[in-house]
């Protein structure tokens, strides 16, 4: 006997419609979700959306405020102003150079951490600059890049290496005593008078620091007649307490050995001599036989010693600041890339080695392609960061070279608050800067969505 079937309440629901309980749950869940999201939405609107809209509106007005409607005039000024053009050019240099250099260094450091014994200590040393604020790093590198080798670490190291291979001039900064009959010529000095065979010439020098006096220098003596040649003496014309007679060799005054003296006729060097330990020299007879010659103290005797480079000058300041930035951010790239390296399957690397690939081929054709997603993340992050760089440039370039090191973020500050007093132009620069950063942000968002799928 067949049993009767009692229809369930669910059978009364129209086909394709959600049950009443599910409809009520869906509606309540959406409302609850919006309630949780509301504070974040409000904060985003206040801190992100409103400033962007207000900045764009303000960029349409001039320096005098809301009564000075300028339209797109500020944007036109932005692309025709010399300072802003320099900032755009420097930002282009930053975007093209810095992300690539930092990523490459991070990749090299990450690979090294897998091959050195003290990997943890190595990572700590490389990553430590990330703990330093941009302000502190800027002040530190202003000292590092100081022009004086006695203060700046960069020039101190370069000068030390340079002096190890080049002795430099023997008497840098020395000059003839006034009214000694010598004229400046290039970096050297030449006698006003011309001399013939048998003459003796005194060439007094001053302004030589005591530490530059050679240890083998002997007391100078007045030159004797040279017979058919030409004799003379080069000495430091200074006696303690200024007791001596200017232009005359006095007792106790020392000769200057190693000075190159050239005999010049009609602008051409016909002979040369080097002074002895007592400063004396002699030009051969044949050089002065044809008539009077002038004596020239060559430039190489007095050229100032190499003092390093003007890192904060107009030609090198951008590269110097980039160097400071690379020092700070190479550790960031190393940590991210090292994490990516740790996730690479080792069997792929071992298979390549078994197939006969060299370490260089394994690195180029296996490691780098597998690390491509991580390298892209580092590159995009750095591009966004360098477009916004401000404080490091402001601190290091503070002074006469700030114009040459200018970037958009710094120009925005200078135009608005740093003396320009034109918030309309500053707002226009801010909008342009936002539009430059926007493609990198959208690329990141698209990549995140693709990874979530």
TrEMBL record:
<feature type="transmembrane region" description="Helical">
    <location>
        <begin position="31"/>
        <end position="57"/>
    </location>
</feature>
<dbReference type="InterPro" id="IPR035906">
    <property type="entry name" value="MetI-like_sf"/>
</dbReference>
<feature type="domain" description="ABC transmembrane type-1">
    <location>
        <begin position="88"/>
        <end position="444"/>
    </location>
</feature>
<protein>
    <submittedName>
        <fullName>Sugar ABC transporter permease</fullName>
    </submittedName>
</protein>
<feature type="compositionally biased region" description="Low complexity">
    <location>
        <begin position="1"/>
        <end position="16"/>
    </location>
</feature>
<dbReference type="Pfam" id="PF00528">
    <property type="entry name" value="BPD_transp_1"/>
</dbReference>
<keyword id="KW-0472">Membrane</keyword>
<dbReference type="InterPro" id="IPR000515">
    <property type="entry name" value="MetI-like"/>
</dbReference>
<keyword id="KW-0813">Transport</keyword>
<feature type="region of interest" description="Disordered">
    <location>
        <begin position="1"/>
        <end position="20"/>
    </location>
</feature>
<feature type="transmembrane region" description="Helical">
    <location>
        <begin position="92"/>
        <end position="112"/>
    </location>
</feature>
<comment type="similarity">
    <text>Belongs to the binding-protein-dependent transport system permease family.</text>
</comment>
<feature type="transmembrane region" description="Helical">
    <location>
        <begin position="324"/>
        <end position="345"/>
    </location>
</feature>
<feature type="transmembrane region" description="Helical">
    <location>
        <begin position="124"/>
        <end position="145"/>
    </location>
</feature>
<feature type="transmembrane region" description="Helical">
    <location>
        <begin position="366"/>
        <end position="387"/>
    </location>
</feature>
<keyword id="KW-0812">Transmembrane</keyword>
<dbReference type="InterPro" id="IPR050809">
    <property type="entry name" value="UgpAE/MalFG_permease"/>
</dbReference>
<feature type="transmembrane region" description="Helical">
    <location>
        <begin position="424"/>
        <end position="445"/>
    </location>
</feature>
<keyword id="KW-1133">Transmembrane helix</keyword>
<keyword id="KW-1003">Cell membrane</keyword>
